[in-house]
Amino acid sequence: MNKELTIGLVGFGVVGQGLYDVLQKSPALNAKIKSICVKNKKQRSLPDEIFCYSPDVILNDSEINLVVELITDADEAFYIVSKALKSGKNVVSANKKMIAENLSELIRLQKENNVSLLYEASACGSIPVIRNLEEYYDNDLLLSVTGILNGSSNYILSKIFDHNKDYHEALKEAQELGFAEADPSFDVDGFDSLFKLVILTAHSFGTIVNPNDVLHYGISNISDFDIKYAKEKGYKIKLVGQVEKLEENKISLFVLPRLVKKDKYIYNVEDEFNGVVIKGLAYDKQFMFGKGAGGHPTGSAVLSDITAIAHDYKYEYKKMNYYTQFLYEKDGTIEIYLRYKNQQDLDLFKFDSITEEYTGPEYNYKIGLISVKNLIDLKDKLRALDIFIAVTRKTLNY
Q: How far apart are CA 95 and CA 245, in angstroms?
């Protein structure tokens, strides 16, 4: 049954405006926006009376039965979403940081108050990956989920490898186009991909992982030396998140730059697009591709959740409730490329073995196996070091 939805929209930035636009093009959906909460008064294209300046106006409005939360502040978003759920209102959110950091509590609130929280737009923009993982991919057969999860970083890397721009030039272009913020660290240092990967892990294997426990490292330290090395070897560098099923009901996950060959699906994922490879025991590999940034692509994912709410859809979290629980495993090794300048930086990395190394007048590199635990222990220091790390052809080695 397509029930009537009266929407309170919190946030009217790029995604909020994109949602408003695509909602106007969906006449079959019995939904209307009653109120839009924004921070400041300013001249906008919509009538002044539709706007309010405190989320409590929406949260306390008994006519509003769906809250759509599209703000960047994770703490404020959690206040809004949790209060809405406690008030018996369904919620759609795109705030991946808030969801990843509070997923257990959000699941509890949904169950206790018999409401639904949907968040397809929190991971991979326009790609419907969460619902597919939730409904289609049986985790007895699912082996891994690997993908480019951040459109901003991918846009920058595309300009570097396809248009011969340097990192800073490509970053500036991404900022001018609205793909990267004035402070781009959330995207380029891997935080955005990390939160998305944590969410995908919950729907892939039914395991909720604390983001603080996961290895993540981005592309902000990439140098011309690293770019030249990758091109000479026939690689592109992509920022990749991966969760993989191991033996004995264990999983491993991390976000790292990766040296990618032409024979990989994600090699040709360019610009602000995302690409996700889902690998299974019986069906081998399946590839999902779509825009991961921009108001209308993300707005369309929000609209999809609104439509699902209209039909009383809820995530059932089947893999948490009906399947064997998987444990997050921090041990094991991966093969990495490590570019470094100073010996004291190299000394922090305890390689198990070295397969290739180079010493030069400015930079040096080593390729070899290293424990994931070693990298996790260093993860808060990595960005401050004059280094760059990328996973090579070998991924996990357990």
A: 26
